[in-house]
């Protein structure tokens, strides 16, 4: 006899994750293509204008002038830090939104389950069964439900 262990089939989740990543990369590439090709290289021009400086060097031996683009590191680091913090805020807000939506669904599910259980209990409960018990069986139940006597309020 073989023992079959049931495991969750995660292929649906993996396919969803791969499609989501492909979609995110496609959107990112589309935005880059739009801003760089359609707007004629405006992204690289903006980066070169704000975060790089041009240094010219003259070679005395050959008499040629060389141009070098060098980064302005403090401004570039600040840009990267700002982009990282912005990405972090978007990530935290998306997690908060997902948790809020999940909690709201769970509360709705809990309320509907409670309502269903209450309805089942009300429909199947017969209050007359308590009063139909013989009196000698009812007396111990009533005495157990009375408050305990601690000696101070004894009759």
Question: In words, what does this structure look like?
Answer:
With about 160 residues, the protein is mainly alpha-helical. It has a domain at about 75-125. Helix content is about 70%, strand content about 10%. It contains 5 helices and 2 strands. The chain has helices at about 10-40, 40-50, 75-125, 130, 135-145, and strands at about 50-60, 65-70. The protein has a two-stranded antiparallel ribbon with strand order 1-2. Strand 1 and strand 2 (about 65-70) form a beta hairpin. It is elongated and about 105 Å long. The two termini are about 70 Å apart.
Short description:
The protein contains 5 helices and 2 strands. With 155 residues, it is mainly α. It starts with 10 loop residues before the first helix and ends in a 10-residue tail after the last helix.
Give the helices and strands, then pairings.
Layout: H1 11-38, H2 42-51, E1 52-58, E2 65-71, H3 73-124, H4 128-131, H5 135-145
Antiparallel strand pairs: 1-2
Largest sheet, spatial ordering of strands: 1-2
Strand residues, percent: 5-15%
Order of helices and strands: HHEEHHH
Number of strands: 2
What does the main sheet amount to? 2 strands, antiparallel
What would the principal axes of the Cα set say about the shape? elongated
Q: Give the helix level as a range of percent.
A: 55-70%
Distance between the termini: 71 Å
Kindly report the average pLDDT value.
82
Rg over C-alpha atoms, rounded to the nearest angstrom:
37 Å
Number of helices, counting only DSSP H or I runs of 4 residues or more = 5
Poorly predicted regions are: none
Structural class: mainly alpha
């Amino acid at each position: 006899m073989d023992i079959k262990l049931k495991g969750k089939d995660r292929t649906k989740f993996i396919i969803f994750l791969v499609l989501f990543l492909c979609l995110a990369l496609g959107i990112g590439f589309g935005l880059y293509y739009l801003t760089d090709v359609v707007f004629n290289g405006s992204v690289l021009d903006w980066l070169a204008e704000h975060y790089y400086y041009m240094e010219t060097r003259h070679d005395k031996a050959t008499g040629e002038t060389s141009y070098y683009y060098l980064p302005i590191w403090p401004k570039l680091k600040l840009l990267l830090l700002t982009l990282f913090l912005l990405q972090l805020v978007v990530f935290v807000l998306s997690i908060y939104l997902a948790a809020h939506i999940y909690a709201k669904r769970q509360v709705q599910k809990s309320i509907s389950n409670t309502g269903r259980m209450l309805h089942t209990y009300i429909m199947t409960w017969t209050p007359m069964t308590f009063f139909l018990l013989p009196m000698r069986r009812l007396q111990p139940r009533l005495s157990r439900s009375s408050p305990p006597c601690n000696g101070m309020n004894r009759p």
